[in-house]
Specification:
Layout (H helix, E strand, L loop, with lengths): L1 H29 L2 E9 L5 E7 L6 E4 L3 E4 L2 E20 L4 E8 L2 E7 L2 E8 L2 E11 L3 H7 L1 H25 L22 H13 L3 E2 H8 L3 H13 L3 E6 L2 E6 L3
Parallel strand pairs: 1-5
Antiparallel strand pairs: 1-2, 2-3, 4-5, 5-8, 5-9, 6-9, 7-8, 10-12, 11-12
């Protein structure tokens, strides 16, 4: 009778252990992670992970949680402490990348694919992590982006300079004298004047406006010294008067 009870007790224990093993099998299977991933990193450090995996929230689009930057160096760190029965990944770094440090679980190899660095890795029965420090070479487009403000301002600055030059030249351009007009108004008695003095008097009379010595010289096509000498003679005779304007003088007929 005692042996029969002992046998029943042993049988019950075996059955109970078998039931517990069956019940615990799905839980153990659920912790058996796997991954077959494509990981892409863009120029701004955004990471996209796609593919097949049963690890929760491992696949993701455009995240910054796996990257950081210090000065010109980027750091990519994807670390999962749980054990993966198997993992395979293709990791694509942006064009112009150069790796200064890399460490990963499992095995890996580095290739180049259409200007991008491609890291292929795989492992079994271990945790899944990738740690890469890399640097981006300056691309032509990034130089343009950094200097876009100067590229926009440069044409505006050149335009302002051209406008300043235009208005300066226009303001300082010698004014052309109007052609002489026929007039029937008498000039008065020009006796006692030489030929040059008569020309100057006639010009001032025809213009009806004060003229500079330079204007008179250009209009009559006579030497500067001759103009100065004859203007001085006309001023002594009281026929003309001078009005200082800046560095020059305005010459006009003297009103009687």
């Amino acid at each position: 009778m005692g042996n029969h009870r002992r046998q029943c007790r042993v049988l019950f224990t075996v059955v109970l252990l078998s039931v517990l093993a069956v019940l615990s099998a799905p839980a153990l299977h659920a912790a058996d992670y796997y991954a077959d991933l494509t990981i892409t990193v863009d120029l701004s450090g955004f990471v996209s992970i796609s593919g097949l995996t049963n690890y929760p929230n491992l696949t993701i689009q455009n995240t910054e949680q796996y990257t950081s930057k210090q000065q010109s160096y980027w750091l990519l760190n994807i670390t999962k402490q749980e054990t993966f029965s198997e993992f395979v990944y293709n990791l694509i770094l942006p064009k112009g990348s150069s790796i200064s440090y890399i460490r990963s679980s499992g095995s890996l190899r580095i290739e180049e694919n259409q200007g991008n660095l491609l890291i292929r890795g795989f492992g079994e029965n271990e945790s899944f992590f990738i740690l890469i420090q890399y640097q981006l070479e300056k691309q032509a487009e990034s130089v343009v982006q950094e200097n876009i403000v100067y590229l926009i301002l440069l044409p505006a600055i050149l335009l302002v300079i051209l406008l300043i030059i235009f208005f300066y030249v226009k303001e300082n351009k010698p004014k052309e004298l109007l052609p002489l007009k026929e007039t029937k108004e008498p000039l008065g008695d020009l006796k006692g004047l030489n030929h040059r003095q008569k020309q100057i008097m006639q010009l001032l009379h025809e213009r009806h406006i004060p003229l500079t010595q330079t204007d008179i010289q250009k209009e009559l096509q006579i030497p500067k010294a001759s103009v100065s000498r004859n203007i001085h003679g006309l001023e002594r005779k009281g026929l003309i008067e001078k009005e200082p304007i800046g560095m020059s003088n305005l010459i006009r007929l003297k009103k009687h």
